[in-house]
Design goal:
about 400 residues; alpha/beta; Rossmann fold; 2 domains; seven-stranded parallel β-sheet; globular; oxidoreductase activity; Short-chain dehydrogenase; NAD(P)-bd_dom_sf; oxidoreductase
């Protein structure tokens, strides 16, 4: 039940917390709103007791589970009452008209449907409930954090990594933390087309479909340098994994997603979401060269944009995720001296490397239906690096949120 409150001059928001509460929205003109039970409405609507909450109100808004506005019965229960007059009945049409004129100070006897249970319950479905996700490079860094977050949000996850033991550890963590979803680990080298094809087929075979493909696996070779010093074998290996591997991931994911059917009972639909890990280096140049890596990630951006256009009307969305420098094993192995690390940190406006989980949250948005109108995008999460010209001096004020690390 919403507790009574003393009148306050500051703006007050009425909290939403339980299914049996009435709900008022933000306001600007103070009134006193009185709630009570009405036997003509469902018993779950309000508690038995009357309670009064002084608020500031410009308009009394309904929040209904179907988002279609007030239903006719509920509207009829809203009756403006003069401060010193007794309550009078109003018919349905008058109540509907008066609902649009609640800008004046008055007292309401009101019965309001609460928000849909899915917006109130702590057991609400996750953002990826019942969906099937395949993550490459899932054994560590962004891939591992994303796999855990996807599972937390209700997805069944296939963790793919060239190091099977790492993928299996991730699957075990999911089984331990999120027993209501399924997780499976498999070994694959994304530099081999057959491995990528087999991984996608395994996801479909085990889970029945593929809704999200996260092409995240990649390498940053320590011998990758400038055009004069980078050997062809380093170039070819980098392209094989970072660019061809993403191409094959897209290819077989698209074929699988074309087979997806609608299941309204589970919130599933046709098509799917493909996320390709690129990098901020594909957007800007660096005097600390890693030419093959940069070129491969530029290719990922271009390929993703084109595939997004080709498959847009099939319900298949493709987006690139462009991380800035992160505190992941991949980058920390590359920046293996303090001098190398400081060479990067000086350019970061926030004064720190990002955390893998911060990228995982961006990947979750692109994987979920919350990004249903997003395709062909280069989603940059880089701590402001790509917007910087001259960075601040001094120690950074903020560390990563404690809840993330």
């Amino acid at each position: 039940m919403i507790p009574s409150s003393q009148s306050q001059e500051s703006e007050l928001m009425i909290p939403c917390g339980k299914q049996d509460e009435g709900v008022l929205q933000k306001s600007t003109s103070r009134v006193s709103a009185t709630f009570k039970r009405d036997d003509r409405l469902p018993q779950r609507t309000l508690s038995d007791e009357m309670f009064s909450v002084p608020i500031q109100l410009s308009i009394f808004e309904h929040i209904l589970s179907d988002d279609k506005g007030p239903d006719i019965e509920t509207v009829a229960m809203i009756r403006p009452v003069a401060e010193q007059e007794s309550e009078t009945e109003s018919d349905t049409e008058n109540a509907r008209l008066e609902l649009n004129q609640l800008f004046v100070e008055c007292t309401f006897i009101a019965i309001v449907k609460p928000p849909s249970p899915c917006t109130l319950s702590l057991d609400m479905p996750g953002r990826l409930e019942n969906k099937v996700v395949l993550v490459t490079g899932a054994g560590s860094g962004i891939g591992l954090e994303s796999s855990l977050l996807f599972a937390q949000e209700g997805a069944n996850v296939l963790l793919v990594d060239i190091h099977l033991a790492n993928a299996e550890k991730g699957a075990s963590l999911i089984a331990e933390r999120f027993p209501n979803v399924k997780a499976l680990a498999t070994k694959a080298d994304v530099g081999k087309e057959a491995d990528v094809k087999d991984a996608v087929n395994l996801a479909v075979k085990v889970f029945g479909r593929l809704d999200v493909m996260f092409n995240n696996a990649g390498i940053m070779h320590p011998e990758d340098d400038n055009a004069l010093n980078t050997e062809e074998r380093i170039w070819d290996l980098t392209m094989q994994i970072n660019l061809k591997g993403v191409w094959w991931g897209c290819k077989y994911a698209i074929l699988a997603m074309r087979q997806n059917s609608v299941d309204e009972t589970k919130g599933l639909h046709v098509g799917g979401s493909i996320i390709n890990t690129a990098s901020f280096v594909a957007l800007m140049g660096a005097a600390t060269p890693q030419l093959a890596y940069t070129a491969s990630k530029g290719g990922v951006l271009a390929m993703t944009r084109e595939l997004a256009m080709v498959h847009a009307r099939e319900g298949i969305r493709l987006n690139s995720l462009c991380p800035g420098p992160l505190k992941t094993p991949l980058l920390m192995d590359f920046l293996n001296t303090e001098e190398k690390r400081q060479r990067r940190l000086v350019h970061l406006p926030m004064g720190r490397f990002g955390e893998a989980v911060e990228l995982a949250r961006a990947a979750l948005f692109l994987a979920s239906d919350e990004s249903s109108y997003v395709t062909g995008a280069d989603f940059t999460v880089d701590g402001g690096l790509s917007s910087a010209y001259v960075t601040p001096i001094g120690e950074p004020a903020l560390a990563p949120p404690a809840s993330l690390i």
